[in-house]
Amino acid sequence: MKILITGATGKVGRRLIFELTSTGRFDSTSLRALCHSREIDGIESVKGTIADRECVRKAMEGVSHVVHLATCKETPDDVMDVTVKGLFWLLEEFRQSSTAQQFILIGGDAAVGHFFYDHGRPITESTPHMAYPGCYALSKVLEEVMMSQFVIQYGINACCLRAPWIMERDDFKFTLSFGDDVFGGPRWKDMVPATDAERYSRDGTVPLLRDAHGRPLKRNFVHSDDLVSAIVMALDHPVTRGRTYNICMNEPVDYGEVAAYLHKTRHLASVDIPSSYHSNWMDNSAAKQDLGWRPQVDLKELVERAWNYQRPGNDPRVIYYPG
């Protein structure tokens, strides 16, 4: 087995490489990373842009499996080259390869609009695509559609693991920051008066986001460890061909429960933040049934890991993309 990993230097890529190189099942597996600018020590790398067909062709030589993690956030100048053109070249080279066996796309819940739309029922793999405004969500829809069409057109063995917001280390703590160090969105400091934001940031106050109906918002997350375990289980699994799987926590994160838990365990205050967003609940039962996968990180574990994480001095918090 020779696995090509795109986006290998990201949080999921790094964790996946660690898992593959420390698990006996993959002792005979070789890894290759397609990297744009950063590199990974000890891993064979092809350096260049995924939008360049020759670069992709070189990266695909002799590859049996592809795990496509590379993505692009709200950057209109790059998003189509990376997430559409790049995926097209990967799939084109994959379908024509004599060694290719399985293609795994890591998708996102942006393809179904996550908290922008009121689905009214659990989000399953058959929920229609509904991109919210912006180029990132559109790109996630196009990725899933393109992959599924290559399955139909050419009969390739491909599947999509659709993940919501991916957390690692202290990410979740910083998703709730009123400071400039906030990870992703919403940007809480822009939703309250500046003097209040400064005080909330100083005191560690957390936002209690409320949905369009005034109830504590429910939003889906997944820990990188759980996503990686799903990827590993999907590798060479015969049932995954042509399928999409929601890979998420068993229950969405309830901002009210988060606020209550942090008040109980760390005496942190919370402040209500009204919004027009909608609560949603991704259904992960298909992955449980087909793959035998079970997420290990629930709400309490997510909080504890984030607040207990001690970042080494030589590992500064770096956000390569805003979300």
Structure description:
This protein has 323 residues and is an alpha/beta fold. The protein has a domain at 2-167 and 220-249 and 281-297: Rossmann fold (3-Layer(aba) Sandwich), CATH 3.40.50. It is 35% helix and 16% strand. The strands form four sheets. Strands 3-2-1-4-5-6-11 form a seven-stranded parallel beta sheet, sandwiched between helices. The chain is globular and about 60 Å long. The model has no long low-confidence stretch (mean pLDDT 94).
Number of strands: 13
How is the quaternary structure best described? Answer: single chain
Measured as a percent range, the helix fraction is 25-40%
Helix-strand pattern, N to C? EHEEHEHEHEEHHEEEHEEHEHH
Portion of residues in beta strands equals 15-25%
Q: Write down the CATH class of the domain at 2-167 and 220-249 and 281-297.
A: Alpha Beta
Mean pLDDT: 94
Coarse shape: globular
Number of helices: 10
Question: Could you describe the largest sheet, including whether it forms a barrel?
Answer: 7 strands, parallel
What's the SSE blueprint?
Blueprint: E1 2-6, H1 11-22, E2 30-35, E3 44-47, H2 53-60, E4 65-68, H3 79-96, E5 102-108, H4 135-154, E6 158-163, E7 165-167, H5 171-175, H6 194-203, E8 206-209, E9 218-219, E10 221-223, H7 224-234, E11 244-246, E12 253-254, H8 255-266, E13 270-273, H9 285-291, H10 299-308
Parallel strand pairs: 1-2, 1-4, 2-3, 4-5, 5-6, 6-11, 7-10, 8-13
Antiparallel strand pairs: 9-12
Helix pairs in contact: 1-7, 2-3, 3-4
